Amino acid sequence: MGNIFKCNEILAFHPGYYIQDIIEEMNVSYAEFSEQLGIDTETLKLLVNGEISVNEEDASKLSCMLGTSAELWLNLQKEYDDKLKSSFH
User: What would the pLDDT profile of 51-64 be if each residue is shown by its tens digit?
Assistant: First the structure.
């Protein structure tokens, strides 16, 4: 699906879009980031590509690793999902 969705005037960014930015800013590989995060590399790739959603466990791991709140990641996912749903109604 991709990590950016655009339909008419609706633009939605999957949390994976932001995770990709963070990986690039940290200048680390997917393998290094996924190891620090505590998930396998394939799952990280799926997340970054917007093929899977951020769940509570992922949000908790991201918050611990990056010093953010879990709610941030869950809210980003909810906003993305809501925009996706609204574009099809």
Answer: 999 999 999 999 99
